[in-house]
Amino acid sequence: MFDSFLYLLRGKGLDVSLNEWIVLNEALDKGLAYSSFTGFYYLCRSVLIKSETDFDKFDAAFLEYFKDIEFGGEIPKELMDWLNNPKETPGNYDEDMAKYNMSLDYQRIEKMLEERLAEQDSEHNGGKYWVGTGGMSVFGNNGKSPKGIRVGGESMYKSAFRVAGERHFKDFSEDKIIDSRQFQMAFRKLRQYSTRTDAPKDELNLDETIEETGNNAGRLKIVYDRPRRNTVKVLMLIDSGGSMDYYRNLCGKLFMAVRKSNHFKDLKIYYFHNSIYERLYTDASCMPGRWVETDTLLRTLSSDYKVIIVGDAAMAPYELLGSSSYLYSYSQMGEGSGMDWFKKVKGHFKHIVWLNPASMNYSPGNYWKETLGILMDEFDMYPLSVNGLEEALKKLMVAK
Do residues 372 and 316 make contact, with C-beta atoms less than 8 angstroms apart? Predict the structure, then answer.
């Protein structure tokens, strides 16, 4: 087909194998680019590129090779021009509309966007139906909908599940990329907090061996110690969906590291959406029926479990401070605010930390700053990085 594109990618330093190239061609034969140039771009990137650090190289090569093809993007230029310069609109949050928008599945929203783009011929701001700015519509930007597709503009509330018309990626330098092995190495340090058994001293104590050998004028003196047994019990509570979708890759690496770790006597993982309420979910989909009562969990688990909360603390203030009846009636019972439940969990367990994958330095007036500040005052919060995880584990294991 266009094998010279493969050679260009390799020439730009991208490691693209023949197997991957064959898979791309098979995907094109099956119509997985959906007859869209944008779809073709994303298909190529998803099949051929293994790391986010190579996105910029891929973009440069892609644009160089296809520079003579007129890009008929899914968003008309005139529409993008004014969407990239959103107008100020007064607060017009509509709770009923927010609930309705949350009930829409992704496929339905994608279809609705196609329909609106076929109909729309002018600007719209502060509305609920058209592609616009500052409203409750599920497409546009700078609006108040808790779910939708961002079109143009800048990310503000991180509630979009997709960004239309955007192909540029940056800030993925190698020193910011974390792999699951780094997290696994951090969890290995939990071993030093395990309890020594009464078994014979048959485990090499490397640090003491070095120390004693040095004190013995360099003559080797091996020191043995009793083995440790896993006594650490961990409960992880993970925020799922919404703005956390932005950090899915990073949180996935943490999840893999936790699952592979053999340094826990017991490990339990539950999920919540934005805030803990009366129920915690048993999988990340947070589907009705796949849950346990939070009170039941607190009665069942002893207070010596080490609790790690993972979340970006990004939610509307009413979700944290208001009753859960404000939210999704199909999944909550409406008793107590999210903050009440966070405090209840904190009050039961002796050791608890919070890992945050998002920025913890929002500028004044930022939409998320209020809830972040409230939760930072209540919990010891650390960035979800290797260093942050190590600091959190140290805090988690100290005696109170």
Answer: no
pLDDT of residue 190: 63
Cite the beta strand spans of the chain per DSSP E: 132-133, 139-141, 148-151, 160-164, 195-196, 203-204, 224-225, 228-229, 233-239, 266-272, 279-281, 291-293, 306-310, 351-356, 381-383
Handedness of CA 135, 141, 147, 148 (dihedral sign): positive
Residue found under tokens 């909908």:
145
Which residues are CB-neighbours of 234 under 8 A, at least 6 positions away?
Answer: 258, 264, 266, 267, 268, 305, 306, 307, 308
pLDDT tens figures, 162-219: 566 544 433 333 344 466 777 777 777 666 655 555 557 777 888 889 999 999 888 9
The 8-class DSSP code of residue 322 comes to S
Q: Which helix (H) or strand (E) holds 390?
A: helix 386-397
From the list 395, 217, 216, 189, the residue with the least C-alpha distance to 307 is 395
Residue of 393, 330, 368, 382 whose CA lies nearest to 146: 368
Beta strands 228-229; 195-196: pairing state: antiparallel
When the pLDDT of each residue in the chain is averaged and rounded to a whole number, the result is: 78
What are residue 189's phi and psi, to 5 degrees?
-70, -15
What one-character DSSP code corresponds to residue 223? -
pLDDT at 61 over 80: yes
d(CA 374, CA 313): 9
Q: Supply the DSSP string of 24-67, one letter for each residue.
A: HHHHHHTTTTTT-HHHHHHHHHHHH---GGGHHHHHHHHHHHTT
State how beta strands 306-310 and 291-293 pair: unpaired
3-state secondary structure of 215: helix
Residue 163 pairs in a beta bridge with 150
Alpha helices in 218-337 (DSSP H): 248-260, 294-300, 317-321
Q: How many CB atoms lie within 10 A of CB 132?
A: 29
Query: How far is Cα 362 from Cα 153, in angstroms, rounded to an integer?
Result: 19
What is the rounded CA–CA span in Å between residue 7 and residue 152?
33
Show the tokens assigned to 311: 């979340």
Q: Which amino acid is located at 268 in the chain?
A: K
Q: What six digits make up the tokens of 123?
A: 């600007």
Place of tokens 């340094």: 263
